[in-house]
Amino acid sequence: MTSSPGLMIYGKSGARTGQISQALTEAAALLLAPQRVVPLIQKLVSDKLRVTFEQRHLYSYTTTKRASGATLSSLLHWILGAQRPNGGIAAYYSLLTGYAASYPEVTGYIVPTLYNFARAAKDKNALTAAERATRWLLSLQMPSGAFPAGLHGGEAQASVFNTGQILQGLVRAFEQTNRLEIREAAVAAGDWLIKMQQSNGSWSGPGAYQDAPHTYYSMVAWALAELSQSTADHRYSLAAERNLDWVLSHFRPSGWIDGINLRGHPNYLHFIAYVLQGVLESAILRRRCDAVKAVETSAWVLLRKFETNKYLPGAYGPDFKSTQCFTCLTGNAQMSCVWLRLFEVTGDVRYLNAALKMNEMLKQLIPARGGQGIAGGVSGSYPVWGRYQPLRYISWGCKFFADALLLEERLTRSFEPSASEALPCAS
Amino acid sequence: MRIVVLSSSVYSETGCAMAVRMAESGHVPVGALALSTVNRSTLLRKLGQWGVREVASYARAKLIPRQGDAQPQLRNPYLRPLLKRGEGVFRSLREVAAFYDFPVAVCSDQNAPDSIARLRGWSPDLIIFTGGNILWKRLLDIPRLGVLNVHLGLLPEIRGMSSPEWSLLKNIPAGVTLHYMDEGIDTGPILHRCEFPGVARCESLNDLRNRLIAFGVEKVAEVVDALDRGALSATPQPNIDEDNQFFVMHEWLQARASGQLTKRRQAAVAGTANG
Predict the structure, then answer these.
(1) Residue A315 within a domain
(2) A360: which chain B residues are within 8 Å (Cβ-Cβ)?
(3) Cβ of A62 and B256 within 8 Å?
(4) pTM
(5) B246 to chain A: which residues are within 8 Å by CB?
(6) ipTM here
(7) CATH number, domain containing residue A228
(8) Are strands A392-394 and A92-94 parallel, antiparallel or unpaired?
(9) What is d(CA A193, CA A206) in angstroms, rounded to the nearest whole number?
(10) What are the pLDDT digits (tens) for A124-159?
């Protein structure tokens, strides 16, 4: 059984009993580390106060209250602080148990973020961190070319999703360093992914989470499309497009996407946004206008919800119905990335407008102060006791919000009012 | 024609100016319905739109007028010709109503049953919306002709919020559209659509918005006259399926829209200089 961000914390069962048992274990850990009691209470009280008194209205988040550059630096500071001595990035910092073990999957897709930040801020620490992370990832590769599921130190079972996310990091690391062993590792990972792909383009059975096919594995297609571009090997792009076609067959006219398919878990915004990011990035690389249009329909539904309510619920039922009263910050940051990329592709400034506001909201929810693991961290949910990754600051949340701010910085720098559309796909 | 004015507050300058303009053109309203001044959602919206300092200053000017304040400040100076009364100005709908002799009612929700009952009691031919709640169908169905809205942008291209700013940013002419309201956002049939010729004279986005409001009030008077003569009918909006809704603009984009306004002003000056 493979894991996936947001699910791996509850181990193999993934069920309510597993969650309760995990929660009890974590709560007991607080007894061993009483110094964490004060930060925990502080966070609970501050979120309770904010939830009680926050008054959102049409003009919420339209003014800049915290500079994006400063927030970006604090996010990167959090990520660098979460890098373990082995080079891997910890999955999360728990207000109950402190740092978790290194997490291969997230370490993989944090590598491009570190390189992007290093380039944007001319930051040597980020560059060094990316190189250390890559070295660690190379040490984890299995003889088959796959990468293991779950946290470092667990059972080494090959995982399609994790291999795909690590592949993203390897492709980028190779582009940055031109080192042959990184290219070989990326090709081996790509070959294994092709071998594991079903004839209909999905991944299911061994290597797939719960042995089932998932539409959010479009993130794997994205990595294969990148590998194809990097190696000029058409086999990887064919595999990416096969998956893209399979995922697109799950888009409803309403914009809802079937087939997220996680037994025992709600459809968190994080996974919906994964589908959209994977499809959109694959579509851009493969110049698939049909896929861009499909993503636009879904992204617009979520944009309207956010613009109307200044809030996106953390989980959804079919056709985006939701009664959840928490928000998934990682999913919000991913939607910001999707909207920014759609702005870049279609030229529709409304996407940029929504992303600027979403980033503004997220900036206000990042702790500016606090100890290691807290300051600059992105909590799983807001309020922090929400259902997605409760009481934790998660490394992939920092990664996606840093991506969103880096995209914001790049796109606002080159902004031209009434500029013509960027790609032929533009509507 | 029996006209009712809906207003976001009894202190709304636009609501007052609209009632005055209607009265001056021979259509004294049969009533006005305003949201109560201390309305939570209105207060929140205005705090977001204007900021705390502006709201406090506005409240002071409206609620505690200074003695001998001959030329009180108006948020929208282009409405002064309509709001001028002797040496002072109309400060509220109540003052306008007392002067022209029509009733004013205050409510907490324009869609509430008591508001609906009051509106039905006035049997309006036309309701003119100058601000307030998103209106429900049961209210929209009350007037014989419809509920008229002045949208500060050209429909169907720009629907929703921050219309003047979006017009600039998307290089669409600034203007106003007078339309009947339906259950959608700015999707109702159009009575009149008019480009605003004075964009190049505007000093700021706020100045543009104020001028558009005053321009819109004048256009309503023309449209009401035409409706009264039976010389005007509404046209359904084309491309109704296209999603042209816009939302409140972030300040970073507002600064870019402001830059576009400056360019238009400079181009107009250069054009004048070149003869």
Answers:
(1) no
(2) 250
(3) no
(4) 0.92
(5) 350
(6) 0.90
(7) 1.50.10.20
(8) antiparallel
(9) 12
(10) 999 999 999 999 999 999 999 999 987 777 677 999
